[in-house]
Amino acid sequence: MSEQGKGSASASAAAAPAPAAGSDTYKGWLFKWTNYLKGYQRRWFVLSNGLLSYYRTQAEMDACNIVLSSGGRTYHLKASTEVERQRWVTALELAKAKAIRMMNDQSGDEEPTSQSDRSELQGTLKILVSKLDDLSTCNDLIAKHGAALQRSLSELEGLKVPVEGGEKIKAVNERATLFRITSNAMINACRDFLDLAETHSRRWQRALQYEREQRTHLEETIEQLAKQHNSLERAWREAPTLVSSAPSAPTTNKGSVRPLKGEASDEDEDTEYFDAMEDSPAFITVTATENTQHRSVSHTHTHTHTHTERDRGSMSPGCNDVSGKELQPRRQRRTHIPDKPNYSLNLWSIMKNCIGKELSKIPMPVNFNEPLSMLQRLTEDLEYHELLDKAARCDSSLEQMCLVAAFSVSSYSTTVHRTAKPFNPLLGETYELDRLEEFGYRSLCEQVSHHPPAAAHHVISKQGWTLWQEITIASKFRGKYLSIMPLGAIHLQFHSSGNHYIWRKVTSTVHNIIVGKLWIDQSGDIEIVNHRTKETCQLKFSPYSYFSRDVPRKVTGVVADNEGHAHYILSGTWDEKMESAKIIQSSRGASGSEGRQKTVYQTLSPKLLWKKYPLPENAENMYHFSGLALTLNEQEDGVGLTDSRLRPDQRLMEDGRWDEANSEKQRLEEKQRAVRRRREAEATDAVVEVTTELFPAGREYEGYQPLWFHQRRDSVTGETNFVYKGGYWEAKERQDWSMCPNIF
């Protein structure tokens, strides 16, 4: 069955024969956009007498097919003539509409809610009746003139005319019949619509009024909840010690505990926490099952620990507390950049045509960027490198795990206000951060792949640790929000103990893409594994919920040994701080509401693992950059020729010259596309040479190879990753960058 009048088609992907001289008919294959799941589909298009029609196949154009789909089953039918097919289609459509009406709720004959509603409804029905009368008159005229036309055509058929003329007259007669059937169907549909409006108008009016009342009630409820939330938060901040006197807290011989309800949005949450008061150790209740020790645990705990020890800044127990921030840098680095210009641009006007596409493939002006590349954002993970310096000095691998977990959470602290998009690195672009003299580490990133975009990162520290990762960013625009999913494992190894930790990042979500203020949330689970000792840490990043009583941006976790026994409870938020509480005793508790027995953990008072540094002054006008981020694009002498600091469009944007930055960005992207086309042509030539007699063996074409990283199979995960192969820092010492490609 042809699909007529359903929009325009895209450019043809198949040649069509040119129309014959004097003919107004043009036929050929085109690819027509259908939806975001199927994309473009091949269709046979026919342009005839000013009417553009398209079909799934050429055969459909002359067939009288009918396709019925019902309840997952499809019936393929065929009528004897086109007129008969149209009659059946019209009858089926009317039967479908009637069946739908019969399924609708026929309840209620109540009057509208007010006299004004009743008057408005009656006026609308009168207008509909008047319009229906006009349509009936037009239908009578169409029927009268159509009948006359058919009589004339029938008389013409009786005349002795050539065979070709007779066929054309027959075709015109069929079209006239179709026209009359369609007009009758139209007037019947209009009459049915009026009947439906009269029958259901009162029910619609009641439903509308009900929805209005519900909306008003919900708005009032939300407003009251917000006021109560703010009031309770102020009261808690002003008098935190009053928690111990809460009358609703049940007591035990060990102290009083107050149950706090976790977020109810996750159906698989197994863990519920209860916090102790100031005068006793914290009690934490974990919902347990028989296989708890052999499975990952989800967490829904909320902590309200007292301020007796954590406010004194105590860190993890058992490790030497020597903070890397106590080392004074030997160089004065910049503390500000030019303020962000106040350019307005509608994000939705650009993104609405990009739904379902990879973010890295969407051409975006610099107006939505921040003057840093993705390589520099990746380097920002080192903002709290002193956590790893401290972890390297830990004698206990479990305490070391707590600090590693805090480090994994701290990498998100700079993202809470960072809604701008970093620059996509060019293929072969690098970024170095040499803090060897100041903090004892050196960091190098390189863009090793462009589609999909992938960056390799390597950090080595004189404090006794090495970190490396290969991150591929998968991002999807969903219409209302943007999901950013980093793919790839992060490896961390401590030199003295050989402890090798591996974890992966959670999903970042940018909300309010269409309307409202942009904001970022982190959600998902992180499992950190020490592959030498088989100890684990399960972290849960709870998604933000307006109706939840939990602290926003909450992170909770459990550190367990290789047998699954829990030793530490972690709690905090990814934008502020993380704490650890050592478990000193565990016992079986009462059964929960679902009949499962709970394990009660008694812990010491929580100790601070990590706390976010305050943002620099005027940060809101400097893209909300942290102290480290402000220095990342600062000019450095002696860096590689492919370093992000030398990227011209990014530098122009930082200087506030956004129009020039947009032009430069387009130039760089076109240059990169030209290089890619040349590389693809070389690959094609290499394949062609394999088939020639002159080069029977062909020549091997390796494709693009990164300069400082090469692919190796990881012995722990079995994955093939890009790892640092060496040579960069030696080249920097020689100031020999002759091997660097010209990408800028």
Descriptive account of the structure:
The protein is of the alpha+beta class. 31% of the residues lie in helices and 26% in strands. The chain has helices at residues 58-62, 82-103, 115-158, 163-238, 347-351, 374-379, 386-392, 397-410, 627-632, 648-654, 658-690, 728-734, and strands at residues 25-35, 39-48, 51-55, 65-70, 73-78, 251-252, 255-259, 274-276, 282-287, 369-373, 421-423, 430-435, 441-450, 453-461, 465-477, 482-487, 489-494, 500-504, 507-511, 519-530, 535-541, 554-560, 566-573, 577-591, 597-603, 607-611, 709-713, 720-724. It has a six-stranded antiparallel barrel with strand order 15-16-19-20-18-17. A three-stranded antiparallel β-sheet has the order 1-2-3. Strands 6-7-8 form a three-stranded antiparallel β-sheet, with no helix packed on it. It is extended. It starts with 24 loop residues before the first strand and ends in a 10-residue tail after the last helix. Mean pLDDT is 76; it is low at 1-16, 105-113, 240-317 and 322-326.
